[in-house]
Design goal:
Elements: H1 30-42, H2 47-50, H3 56-61, E1 64-69, E2 73-74, E3 84-85, H4 95-105, E4 110-115, H5 126-139, E5 144-148, H6 156-165, E6 169-171, H7 181-185, H8 190-202, E7 207-213, H9 219-231, E8 236-241, H10 258-270, E9 275-278
Parallel strand pairs: 1-4, 2-3, 4-5, 5-6, 6-7, 7-8, 8-9
Helix pairs in contact: 4-5, 5-6
Length: 293
Amino acid sequence: MTTPTNPSTKPATQRVPKPKWLRVKLPTGQAYKEVRDIVSEHKLHTICESGHCPNMGECWGAGTATFMILGNICTRSCGFCNVATGKPLEADPFEPGRVAQSVKLMKVKHAVLTSVDRDDLPDGGSEIWAQTVRAIRHQSPETTLETLIPDFAGKWENLARIIQVAPEIVSHNLETVRRLTKEVRIQAKYDRSLEVLRRLRQGGMKTKSGVMLGLGETFDEVVETMDDLRSVGCQVLTLGQYLQPTPKHLPVVEFIHPDVFSELKEIGLQKGFRFVESGPLVRSSYHAEKHLF
């Protein structure tokens, strides 16, 4: 995707060397240190740490943290994701209270909630989702919330539970362009994800989505994806570089230059997105606290 119209010519089996612009600075700052001490003292869990997020120091310094609910075993096996796949444990009815307590102890100003896919549960885990939002609001009423949700396998009564508790913003990631969805997301469907976002907007939610670059998509396909997202009213977009978690996962086809990310950001803003976070180290929850409007 080094040119506006041509896909990468690198074969998928060739290991592409990591460029210098992907170097990560170590987290610093007093606010980060205070949160880190609380997390260590109380043995709290955040996906910021477990996912080795490159923006952890910046986000914690801004009072933002991301929590994963409904366990750490996913019922799906997406080619980009390092979360374990298998038969999950039963949903924990006490989890919402524990997450809310963590948010309170960490003095989180803006919490992002995400989860594994729970296609094994009749409600897709949506009741635990709703209970967690309510619990956080009860214990930390000043904390704002973003929920990064799955597609609930297109069972819209489960999606309705998210709309009913009305987080400040609801995110659902397309992850990639239409052509690559079957390979990258396997059990997910591109149009179903668009329908999730459309129904959220119809329900009055502020919506957000994210796309990974470097999987073999073309520049034009990314722009087409922006159009698809705008067609269902999506208001916030994140674009980041895909990084291969292990040799068993999909390879990086190309490392996208920061200049291309900058160009895509300008295009996205011109198309009407309220916010576009676009850069090699951008992840779904990057600058999440700034996406409230």
